[in-house]
């Protein structure tokens, strides 16, 4: 008796397991074929920093060092210079001569973005920041200023985010 | 002391002298009232209105003139209908003050909002950001959000250069007039003013060059906003990128340019000095710094610094290791035997100087050491040991009952910090007797101006002494208890009554008499004397007599101070870097050594010379041959100076900010400085370290491993310095004193307050006894219609200051300054060149014309590039008769 029961139970379990396998076999896979296919991130995902410019080409950064002051890991280094009035780099008197971020130290907390009085530094979405040389992990101002929109990142729209987590929906919370 | 008035501030009772303003009474009990225009060091104007508080006084019944009492028997307080400015409302008995009433909080908010209508919100790029009173007060009392549209703000020009050093941003300025009051009241340079009214009001300077003041940097400290900023710290102006103040590491230090030893804070960032700020020391520099100190720090980071030992081979310097250099020095010094001489610059620290004399006296067995490089540093000053100013002397606090007798010194140029303090004392009512042969800046405030003929200062002092003895104004108790030889002095002085000296000094006898009375009658008296009075034993003896018979010695706020030229001239004399004295003013036991003057004669007979931190050739070009003829010369310095170029071995030393040590200022106050940055290369050694290494090669077993340790030995060996251990010198002052005297407003940093330690003079020992000495003055007055006077100036041709690019335009070029009438007589105009000929030499100089000079004087500063004045002087005095030829 026990032998027959064990056989039947085993068959049923195998069948159930295979059913699950079959179910997921037919579903769309969740694995992302990175980097062949882009990765979707949420709009507020905090990835690699960029330095922004105004539409007229002037740098937004005024070299005030407030990001460096706010940074909890001390990974930002700013040296300011005085703008040439004829040929300014940024608005106002001051601009950043050097602006460096040590990405090995950065914890992507976003305090720099919050401290910035001109929205010059923002945390964008790139997360693939590995380097072959540790020195390359120190991002210079030139690198941070360069438009950076890698193919392997896709930003979800805000609607998806709101839909899923019900942001702004007071009933939900 | 004036009467005390008791009032209540926020319910706390406080008693203050009558006439005190509410704000000072509030500060006393720790109530902080916000201010912009008020500054405790400046007069009150009450223009910013941010200190408004609610004030009430007890009500009085008009009919009975009695205070109105309530049911409980307490006086009824009647509050003024409008708030009162705390900075300019004096206290009165029974007054009640509410600092944070609803009305005053609303007023503060309104004032701040109003100020911000014309103030740019550029804190992120403003140099003051982080230590700005306006920023702080807006955080504390502001609305938080503006009702004003940013686009409609009032805008004014930004970045207006005021001279080479200061930049004005009129948009940020809130017209508090602190800078103007500083210049008028403290510095005495009336170079700033407010122009226009209302919205158009702005700070202007019309002098040429603009903002022409040696003290202008202080206005950037006291400016409550970022309107005045220093060009040195601003952005990239001086080839250095800007940093923010919170990124700086602040290290306490001492000025190496200031003979008062101004306390300062070095703000360093990534191993470089970025700014110099004053460190408050009420006994030395209060909260001020001279521009020379503030902007002259650039030599530390100069690319011309020596970085490795150099040995001369076939006329060319070759880099060497310390090992080789020290071996060579040891061999040569050994060979030279007793034919060796040493000159140490008075910029060295006490530790270096002590070890330097120890090396010569104990290891090389020679007394041939000196720090007085010819006339440049020479005031032979033995008076400090006996009757130097008393411990705790605070010239900044001298008031009505005091007198200062300033003899033969232009303090503004020679001791700028002392100038500010003497000026402050005069403002508080101290009687200043300014005796000099020409106009000096302190004449504008001096109560008595004495204009003597050059060379007759000693007669003036003798005339004053004679008057005091004649009229019986001497301090009889002091004379009776501690002096000897007064009768002898009286007889000798009969030949020097004011009438008799009036002729030679050129000063009216009555004026001499009055000056003598003023000085003798004052409760506290200080004599300051400089090189323009002369430099002979007769003068020093006469000054000593004057101080002794008036009893102005051996106690606080009394005594005699020589205006020594360098930051540690006093320390060099204290620690025996002088041929005839051991450390602590003990006479040498054996033969007296050669002085610098003798060593620098062409036929000095020395085989080896060790020159530390002294650019002898740069200062006195005529000494070149003496150094050239010496077989073996070692120069230890920061730069390849003219002297170093002649050396056989050049050793790289550490600059002041790269090491620790101590300086003794001209009031005998020993102060310590901390290391702030690293030297350019590890092969730069501290001076005491190099001296120790040389001594080690010569067989001495010294074990010094730190400046601290050297000072420990000094405390054991030199009784004057027994309290000067670093532990004592770095001890912060008592909390009580700090509360009473220290403000630190508008500075983001707090550095230790150290006041330094003074050593006691002989007069301070109440059992000490003095013999009055009289030395007959030799008549060495220059026999000529025109006298060349060669004082020191602040912006000199020295190596260190020349590294500061920002000060380049201020450094004076050699010139002969004449009075207009002399120029007219010789038909000269500005820019012409004249030939000056004295009994010693002859030089050609371009001329300048100064209406304030007397007609018989030509002025040529002596510490300028090329040392032209030294070529005309006879090595005895800094004035000499000359002939002028067009």
Structural class of chain B: alpha/beta
Number of DSSP helices of chain B? 28
Molecular shape of chain A: elongated
- CATH fold title of the largest domain in chain A: Alpha-Beta Plaits
Largest sheet of chain A: 3 strands, antiparallel
Q: Give the overall pLDDT of chain A as a whole number.
A: 88
CATH architecture of the largest domain in chain A: 2-Layer Sandwich
- Compute the number of structural domains of chain A: 2
Largest sheet properties of chain B: 7 strands, mixed
Helix content of chain B: 25-40%
Number of domains of chain B: 5
Strand line-up in the sheet with most strands of chain A: 3-4-6
What is the CATH C-level name of the largest domain in chain B? Answer: Alpha Beta
Percent strand of chain A: 15-25%
Question: So how many helices of chain A?
Answer: 5
CATH class of the largest domain in chain A: Alpha Beta
What do we call the CATH topology of the largest domain in chain B?
Rossmann fold
The number of strands of chain A is: 7
Termini gap of chain B: 61 Å
> Structural class of the secondary structure composition of chain A?
alpha+beta
Write up this protein.
With 173 residues, chain A is α+β, with helices and mostly antiparallel strands. Chain A has two domains: 1-30; 39-165, 2-Layer Sandwich (Alpha-Beta Plaits), CATH 3.30.70.3270. Chain A has helices at residues 2-26, 66-70, 111-115, 141-145, 158-165; strands at residues 39-41, 49-51, 76-82, 94-102, 121-123, 138-139, 153-155. Chain A starts with a helix and ends in an 8-residue tail after the last helix. In chain A, 23% of the residues are buried. Chain B is α/β, with parallel strands linked by helices and 886 residues long. In chain B, strands 16-15-29-28-27-17-18 form a seven-stranded mixed sheet. The model of chain B has no long low-confidence stretch (mean pLDDT 90). Chain B is globular. Chain A binds chain B through residues 62-66, 68-69, 79-82, 92-94, 97-98, 117-118, and chain B through 122, 124-125, 129, 158-159, 234-237, 241-244, 246-247.
């Amino acid at each position: 008796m026990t032998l027959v029961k064990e056989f039947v139970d085993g068959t049923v379990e195998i069948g159930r397991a295979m059913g699950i396998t079959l179910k997921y076999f037919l579903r769309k896979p969740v694995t992302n074929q990175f980097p062949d296919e882009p990765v979707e991130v949420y709009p507020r995902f905090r990835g690699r920093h960029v330095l922004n410019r105004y539409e007229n080409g002037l740098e937004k950064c005024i070299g005030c060092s407030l990001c460096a002051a706010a940074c909890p890991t001390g990974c930002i280094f700013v040296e300011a210079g005085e703008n040439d009035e004829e040929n300014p780099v940024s608005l106002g008197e001051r601009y950043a001569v050097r602006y460096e971020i040590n990405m090995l130290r950065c914890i992507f907390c976003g305090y720099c973005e919050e401290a910035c009085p001109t929205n010059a530094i923002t945390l964008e979405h790139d997360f693939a920041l590995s380097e072959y040389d540790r020195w390359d992990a120190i991002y210079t101002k030139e690198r941070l200023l360069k438009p950076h929109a890698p193919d392997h990142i896709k930003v979800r729209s805000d609607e998806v985010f709101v839909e899923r987590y019900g942001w702004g929906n007071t009933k939900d919370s | 002391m004036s009467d005390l008035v008791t009032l209540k501030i926020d319910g706390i009772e406080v008693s203050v002298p009558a006439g005190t303003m509410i704000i000072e009474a509030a500060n006393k009990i720790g109530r902080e009232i916000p201010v912009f225009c008020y500054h405790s060091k400046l007069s009150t104007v009450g223009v910013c209105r941010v200190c408004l508080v609610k004030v009430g006084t007890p009500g009085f019944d008009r009919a009975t003139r009695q205070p109105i009492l309530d049911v409980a028997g307490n006086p009824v307080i009647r509050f003024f209908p409008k708030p009162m400015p705390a900075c300019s409302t004096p206290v009165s008995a029974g007054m009640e003050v509410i600092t944070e009433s609803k009305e005053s909080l609303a007023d503060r908010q309104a004032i701040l909002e109003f100020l911000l209508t014309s103030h740019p919100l550029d804190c992120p790029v403003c140099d003051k950001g982080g230590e700005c009173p306006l920023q702080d007060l807006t955080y504390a009392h502001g609305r938080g959000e503006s009702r004003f549209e940013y686009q409609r703000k009032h805008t004014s020009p930004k970045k207006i250069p005021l001279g080479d050093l200061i930049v004005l941003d009129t948009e940020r300025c809130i017209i508090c007039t602190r800078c103007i009051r500083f210049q008028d009241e403290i510095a005495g340079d009336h170079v700033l003013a407010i122009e226009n009214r209302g919205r158009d009001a702005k700070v202007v300077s019309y002098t040429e060059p603009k903002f022409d003041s040696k003290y202008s940097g202080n206005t950037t400290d006291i400016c409550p906003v970022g309107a005045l900023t220093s060009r040195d710290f601003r952005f990239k102006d001086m080839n250095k990128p800007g940093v923010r103040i919170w990124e700086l590491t602040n290290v306490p230090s001492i000025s190496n340019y200031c003979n008062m030893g101004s306390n300062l804070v070095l703000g360093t960032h990534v191993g470089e000095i970025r700014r110099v700020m004053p460190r408050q020391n009420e006994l030395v520099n209060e909260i001020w710094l001279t521009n020379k100190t503030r902007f002259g720090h650039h030599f530390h980071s100069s690319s011309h610094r020596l970085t490795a030992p150099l040995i001369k081979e076939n006329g060319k310097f070759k880099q060497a290791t310390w090992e080789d250099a020290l071996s060579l020095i040891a061999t040569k010094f050994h060979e030279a035997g007793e034919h060796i001489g040493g000159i140490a610059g008075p910029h060295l620290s006490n530790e270096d100087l002590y070890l330097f004399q120890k090396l010569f006296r104990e290891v090389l067995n020679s007394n041939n050491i000196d720090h007085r490089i010819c006339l440049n540093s020479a005031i032979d000053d033995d008076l400090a040991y006996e009757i130097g100013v008393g411990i705790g002397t605070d010239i900044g606090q001298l008031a009505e009952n005091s007198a200062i007798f300033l003899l033969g010194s232009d303090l503004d140029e020679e001791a700028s910090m002392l100038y500010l303090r003497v000026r402050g004392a005069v403002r508080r009512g101290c009687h200043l007797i300014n005796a000099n042969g020409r106009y000096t800046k302190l004449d504008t405030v001096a109560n008595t101006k004495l204009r003597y003929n050059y060379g007759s200062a000693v007669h003036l002092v003798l005339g004053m002494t004679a008057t005091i003895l004649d009229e019986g104004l001497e301090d009889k108790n002091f004379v009776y208890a501690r002096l000897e030889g007064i009768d002898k002095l009286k007889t000798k002085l009969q030949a020097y009554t004011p009438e008799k000296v009036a002729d030679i000094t050129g000063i009216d006898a009555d004026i001499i008499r009055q000056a003598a009375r003023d000085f003798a009658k004052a409760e506290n008296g200080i004599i300051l004397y400089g090189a323009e009075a002369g430099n002979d034993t007769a003068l020093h003896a006469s000054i000593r007599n004057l101080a002794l018979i008036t009893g102005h010695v051996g106690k606080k706020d009394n005594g005699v101070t020589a205006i020594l030229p360098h930051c540690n001239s006093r320390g060099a004399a204290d620690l025996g870097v002088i041929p005839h004295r051991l450390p602590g003013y003990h006479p040498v036991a054996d033969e007296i050594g050669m002085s610098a003057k003798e060593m620098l004669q062409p036929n000095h007979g020395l085989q080896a010379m060790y020159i530390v931190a002294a650019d002898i050739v740069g200062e006195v070009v005529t000494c070149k041959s003496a150094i050239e003829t010496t077989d073996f010369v070692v120069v230890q310095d920061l730069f390849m100076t003219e002297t170093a170029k002649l050396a056989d071995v050049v050793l790289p030393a550490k600059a002041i900010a790269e090491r620790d040590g101590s300086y003794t200022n001209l009031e005998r106050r020993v102060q310590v400085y901390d290391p702030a940055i690293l030297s350019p290369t590890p092969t730069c050694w501290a001076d005491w370290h190099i001296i120790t290494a040389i001594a080690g090669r010569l067989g001495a077993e010294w074990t010094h491993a730190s400046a601290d340790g050297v000072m420990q030995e000094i405390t054991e060996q030199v009784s004057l310095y027994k309290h000067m251990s670093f532990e004592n010198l770095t001890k912060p002052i008592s909390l009580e004193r700090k509360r009473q005297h220290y403000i630190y407003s508008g500075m983001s940093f707090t550095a230790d307050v150290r006041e330094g330690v003074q050593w006691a003079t002989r007069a301070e020992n109440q059992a000490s006894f003095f013999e009055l000495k009289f030395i007959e003055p030799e008549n060495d007055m220059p026999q000529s219609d025109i006298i060349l006077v060669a004082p020191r100036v602040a912006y000199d041709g020295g190596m260190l200051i020349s590294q500061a690019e920002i000060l380049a335009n201020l450094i004076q070029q050699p010139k002969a300054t004449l009075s207009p009438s002399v120029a007219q007589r010789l038909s000269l105009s500005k820019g012409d060149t004249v030939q000056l000929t004295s009994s010693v030499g002859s030089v050609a100089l371009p001329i300048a014309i100064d209406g304030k000079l007397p007609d018989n004087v030509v002025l040529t500063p002596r510490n300028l590039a090329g040392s032209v004045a030294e070529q005309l002087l006879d090595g005895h005095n800094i004035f000499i008769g000359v002939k002028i030829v067009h």
